[in-house]
């Protein structure tokens, strides 16, 4: 689904009681970036809802370009075990990149040793001018088209990201679909859930291959 289909639920921040805090502070800052029409805001909102379900503190900050479709579209998601001071991210631990322009904008900002997830249908790992990142390349459009709907590429990417980072559970991510989309689009939720699972399966397979000595992703 794209931003247009996912309108209706905006989560700016959420705070929870001390009873739900983890034993130590854990903060994960994520930038998701692409162009309008790729569903960037949708998956950022979805991730924030999943963190909410798991009683984590979360902020979600969408940043739109001037153009509704085809312009720059970014969102910042901060997930923490303690109260979050600001939704603005300077140096993210993780970056999900869906376009070449987004790679140029954010690759230099990712923390040393951070995770760079690429939609390799549009951006190849060889285009990354850093060798100190963990790179996960996911052919999101190919996987989505195999499911019969190329517009599900954003869900494929998010499934792979959650499988790689374990920042929330896949169950929470899929459960959050019904909270993220308006009821008129709920008939599309099974397809979105399947795209999430396929993305997770792809990331899981890469991890298994890496352990076996034939990686398609990893440290650069």
Topology, pairings included?
Blueprint: E1 13-14, E2 27-35, H1 40-53, E3 57-64, E4 72-80, E5 94-97, H2 100-106, E6 115-119, E7 134-138, H3 140-146, H4 153-165, H5 170-175, H6 177-180, H7 189-211, E8 218-219
Parallel strand pairs: 2-5, 5-6, 6-7
Antiparallel strand pairs: 1-3, 2-4, 3-4, 7-8
Helix pairs in contact: 3-4, 4-7
Structure description:
- This protein is an alpha/beta fold and 220 residues long.
- It has one domain: Pyruvate-ferredoxin Oxidoreductase, domain 3, CATH 3.40.920.10.
- Helix content is 34%, strand content 20%.
- The protein is built from 7 helices and 8 strands, in the order E-E-H-E-E-E-H-E-E-H-H-H-H-H-E.
- Strands 1-3-4-2-5-6-7-8 form an 8-stranded mixed beta sheet, with helices on both faces.
- The two termini are 32 Å apart.
- The model is unreliable at 2-24 (pLDDT under 50).
Nutshell version of this structure?
This protein is α/β, with parallel strands linked by helices and 220 residues long. The protein has helices at 40-53, 100-106, 140-146, 153-165, 170-175, 177-180, 189-211, and strands at 13-14, 27-35, 57-64, 72-80, 94-97, 115-119, 134-138, 218-219.
């Amino acid at each position: 689904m794209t931003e247009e289909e996912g309108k209706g639920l905006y989560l700016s921040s959420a705070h929870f009681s001390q009873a739900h805090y983890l034993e130590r502070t854990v903060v994960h800052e994520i930038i998701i970036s692409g162009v309008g029409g790729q569903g960037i805001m949708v998956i950022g909102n979805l991730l924030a809802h999943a963190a909410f379900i798991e009683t984590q503190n979360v902020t979600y900050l969408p940043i739109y370009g001037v153009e509704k479709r085809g312009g720059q579209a970014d969102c910042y998601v901060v997930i923490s075990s303690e109260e979050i001071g600001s939704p603005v991210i300077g140096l993210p631990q993780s970056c999900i990149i869906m376009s070449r322009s987004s790679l140029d904008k954010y690759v230099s900002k990712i923390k040393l040793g951070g995770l760079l997830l690429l939609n390799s249908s549009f951006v190849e790992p060889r285009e990354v001018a850093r060798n100190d990142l963990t790179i996960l390349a996911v052919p999101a459009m190919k996987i989505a088209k195999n499911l019969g709907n190329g517009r599900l590429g954003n869900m494929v990417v998010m499934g792979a990201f959650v499988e790689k980072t374990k920042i929330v559970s896949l169950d929470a991510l899929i459960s959050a679909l019904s909270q993220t989309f308006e009821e008129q689009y709920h008939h599309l939720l099974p397809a979105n859930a399947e795209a999430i699972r396929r993305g997770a399966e792809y990331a899981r397979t890469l991890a298994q291959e890496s352990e076996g000595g034939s990686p398609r992703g990893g440290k650069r």
